[in-house]
Predict the 3D structure of the following.
Amino acid sequence: METQTGEHRTRSPETCPTLVLNADYRPLSYYPLSLWHWQEAIKAVFMQRVNIVAEYDQTVSSPSFKMRLPSVVSLKNYITPSEYPAFTRFNVFLRDHFTCQYCGDSNDLTFDHLIPRSRGGTTTWDNVVTACSPCNLKKSNKLPKDAGMWPTNLPIRPSVHHLHSNGRSFPPNYLHDSWQDFLYWDTELEP
């Protein structure tokens, strides 16, 4: 496929992600932001699973068609969002504001089991906190009381709303102008 804007070649379609909205015009996910690769978006358009809400100026073409790349699409069928987010490393970091819960550092982050796995601890929301590597190594496989290390905030299972609220402090690196009406970050604060 050749990529064009008007009559001039431009950047690769790889730099044109598509924001995916639910049928109610809210992003399917904020963290991470629900984005599709341009090819996924075009496939969904042809399968009539989405409506195109906004487009890039950039086009893609083949011998049989030419179309502008979608920058925003909405699903035709509503997907009921989950009340609770998936347990992932990123979501644990987001819940804990991307800071070590022992010393407050934000570099070299890992996660730590309050009750170590070697002592029967589980990998669950209420047993895992964000920790920098030095604190994680220092605590090792000890209980917090044995290590003399207590997390700043006790771990909880966050709601989607909780993560959304925390995530306002960490907007994505890339926000296309056509996405602004559907997102809730204060974009005037961005460089």
